[in-house]
Amino acid sequence: xxxxxxxxxxxxxxxxxxxxxxxxxxxxxxxxxxxxxxxxxxxxxxxxxxxxxxxxxxxxxxxxxxxxxxxxxxxxxxxxxxxxxxxxxxxxxxxxxxxxxxxxxxxxxxxxxxxxxxxxxxxxxxxxxxxxxxxxxxxxxxxxxxxxxxxxxxxxxxxxxxxxxxxxxxxxxxxxxxxxxxxxxxxxxxxxxxxxxxxxxxxxxxxxxxxxxxxxxxxxxxxxxxxxxxxxxxxxxxxxxxxxxxxxxxxxxxxxxxxxxxxxxxxxxxxxxxxxxxxxxxxxxxxxxxxxxxxxxxxxxxxxxxxxxxxxxxxxxxxxxxxxxxxxxxxxxxxxxxxxxxx
Length: 343
Hints:
Elements: E1 2-4, H1 15-29, E2 33-34, H2 45-58, E3 68-73, H3 79-88, E4 92-97, H4 110-117, E5 122-125, H5 128-136, E6 142-145, E7 167-172, E8 194-199, E9 214-218, H6 222-228, E10 233-236, H7 247-251, H8 259-266, E11 271-274, H9 280-286, E12 289-292, H10 298-304, H11 307-325, H12 328-342
Parallel strand pairs: 1-2, 1-3, 3-4, 4-5, 5-6, 7-8, 7-10, 8-9, 10-11, 11-12
């Protein structure tokens, strides 16, 4: 039997919880059995803790020898307990990584994180770069990759057919200077080829250089953004610098799959991404956007791009978007994991 452990998710508006509940839905559609309690979205901390704890305590009694249990990591204090109990019951554990605490948040040392992950029999990393990092750090589990996060939504993108320059670059996410200081510098380099539409909370327009190049759209729920996005490109960039993705948030792009990339694709937007980002190879392979070393180069790169080239990218984005909606990437990755464990 193939199983998963559901829990309480405190709010579904965050990218992390959206990715996890999407994966639960895909597993449910694949006839995996939830061995925890029913998924809940209580915002009360105490109630959320109790519901998740009860599900964790219930889960081992539903496992049998030969079962495969899929866990979504991090599972905080419960992860090692659930892995150990699953093994005592004769089950195997597949771990899907969402976030590595030893990177941007530094909540764990690298050694401690690898010790935790080594309780798993098989790990689905975000991409080949993360897989290689895990191997180099001493991860002993079998390893596979997701490629990109799926993104389930009934919303349909409203893709314009009459795109013209200057391009509208959409950026969605945390807009506060503390997380993404680059947004407050990029206006200096905005030329005739593009302008910005910003979605999210915390943008301080008066502090931005070249503020005439920005339109602040405010916070929009992701499902609404898919059907109403005002933009031609989605920007995947993090950190303090426009010349590179710097700082803990920026450097993490070399290893992780930002969930906003999948959101942009579901919005029908080709992607602009840092050339050293782990997902840059996916963007190049599928011809769904452009990769740049520095945002200082963006105006020249977009000026040279023809509308015919852009239209071809749009077409490719639509194909990948359908795969994300169908849950194709996770379902493929988890079936490979199960096959590897049973071979």
